[in-house]
Amino acid sequence: MPLYARAVEFPIDIQTRSAQETEALGSELAQCFAGGNRVVLEGDLGSGKTVLVRGICRGLGVTAEVTSPTFTLAQRYENGRLPVSHLDLYRLEAGMAGEDPGVLEGEFSAERVTLIEWPERAPIGSLQPDYRVSISHLGGDNRRVVVECLS
Amino acid sequence: MILAIETSCDDSCAAVLTGTGEVLSSVVGSQVIHDLYGGVVPEIAARHHLELLLPVVERALSDANVELEDLERVAVTQGPGLVGALLVGIATAKGLAVGLDIPLRAVDHLHGHVAASYLAGVELEPPFLCLVASGGHTLIANIQEPGSDWSIVGTTIDDAAGEAFDKGARILGLGYPGGPLVEKEAEAGDPAAFDFPRAAGVPGVDFSFAGLKTSLLYAVRDLGEAEAEARRADLAASYQAAIVDQLVERVSRAVETTGVSVVAFGGGVAANSAARMGLTEAGINLVVPPTKYCTDNAAMIGRAAIELPDLPREAALALDAYSTADRSAR
To answer: What's the domain range around A94?
Structure first.
């Protein structure tokens, strides 16, 4: 049964066995999100954060290719049920520490769903997230996905 | 005389070109950081387009020996990229166009990478293909006609090739920027030592590098810290080979399906000699612009603008940035 067919109780703690399952989970999670929501995604390199984000975007009706925003820092998808900003703050460490905080302001407007990878590197103080998603490797293509509601 | 401005990602860039596309100057932000901060370069300056862009424009004009009043039009990158950064360039370009009462042209960043092919110093006429592989983008464009008539025939479905180099370097403990460091480490390694995936499941001429990154991560974990360090050259060589093989395979397929045999190569990954060699050895008729026109720069934006119409005044004033390339819209 899809998550949204019943009252979703957080935290969700679920195992996925493939990238497809992780993406499908994202698609179901998307049904819980509203404009203005901030969702932080935590997990090691290669754990599947962008895969989950792709699922969330699909669940919100985004049809465009959803790719890694590591280099641009933020990508916007405007053609879904809600506008989405996908942030990846990975590069704000090391040599890229100088991001101008103002440059990212537009990604947090009230109508958008803002999905944030590597939130601990945020240059803009506290992000005040509404949801926290944690993904961990369980070997092979298996992942543990925990979703907490913080608001 | 055209002034071009590019601020889609890290670098604030400006260039001056003649009306026929000859580059008179091309300046990137890092070149003026020294002037602004007196030798000590604070990290915080790296992405401050707002502070850097005007000094960069001034330098581009003085390098070209051109006065503001000599400019006939302004060109600016509209997207794809970071919207907040793009808007700094767009606002500056609008201001100059209005202040000097000259027309504005809006350029797609990817069209810029394609147009950089014309700055390679060789005779190049469409039809040709263009492989753009950088930190933010990996795609194959098909340029059928002179002008802005080009289409994307394949693109990455997850990570970009340059990003794969950078994240691989991170996993291998090599630091940043990843491309040159992985290439250097790979020199002493065996490219066949590890069998990393080449996105065999991705059809057509699309790319995928996310699975490769995860495979490297698992290989390093399985080896353990000491062994992974001892075999770092082999890991780097095998990882680089997997990236290069995928580029070569997709480009070869694109040549086969389109029947177009000349391939230009742009984006920062074009600086990787293993990638250039792999494509040449596969029999590809390769055209590579100088590295300064492969990495982000404004000269390529100006060159692309040569092929585009001026925006009507109202559209120029209303110009907005866009974040992502929409393949379906092309």
So the answer is: 17-149
Domain total of chain A: 1
B218, containing H or E segment:
helix B210-223
- CATH code, A138: 3.40.50.300
Q: How far apart are CA A70 and CA B292, in angstroms?
A: 22
Q: Number of A:B CB contacts under 8 A?
A: 112
The pTM of this model reads: 0.91
Which residues on adjacent β-strands are paired with residue B2? Answer: B17, B73
Residue-wise pLDDT tens digits, B1-25: 999 999 998 889 999 999 999 999 9
CA angle B167, A45, B212 (to 5 degrees): 60
- Alpha carbon distance B251, B129 (integer Å): 9
Residue B120 lies in a domain: no
Domain span at residue B159?
127-288
Is the peptide bond between B80 and the residue preceding it cis, with omega within 30 degrees of 0?
A: yes
**Cross-chain residue pair B82–A73, CB shorter than 8 Å:** yes
Q: Do B210 and A106 touch (CB under 8 A)?
A: no
- Whether B171 and B198 map to the same domain: the answer is yes
A56 lies in a domain? yes
- Give me the tens of pLDDT residue by residue for chain A, a chain 151 residues long: 455 545 678 999 999 999 999 999 999 999 999 999 999 999 988 899 999 999 999 999 999 889 999 888 899 999 999 999 999 988 776 434 445 667 788 899 999 999 999 888 876 556 889 999 999 999 888 999 999 999 8
User: pLDDT digit string (tens) for B26-72?
Assistant: 999 877 776 676 555 444 444 578 888 999 999 999 999 999 999 99
B26 sits in which H/E element = strand B23-28
Which residues is B74 bridged to in the sheet?
A: B3, B104
In this structure, what are the phi and psi dihedrals at residue A85, rounded to the nearest 5 degrees? Answer: -115, 130
ipTM of this model?
Answer: 0.86
- Separation in Å, CA of A148 to nearest CA in chain B: 25
Residue numbers in A near B165 (CB within 8 A)? none
Instruction: Give residue A149's Cα distance to chain centre.
Output: 13
- Most A CBs within 10 Å, among B8, B37, B41, B47, to test the A interface: B47
Average confidence score pLDDT of chain B: 92
B137 & B277 share domain: yes
How far CA A21 is from CA of A17, A18, B44, B230, in Å, comes to 6, 5, 40, 36
Q: How many distinct structural domains can be found in chain B?
A: 2
State how far the Cα of B264 lies from the Cα of B270, in Å rounded to an integer: 10
Instruction: State whether residue B305 is helix, strand or coil.
Output: helix
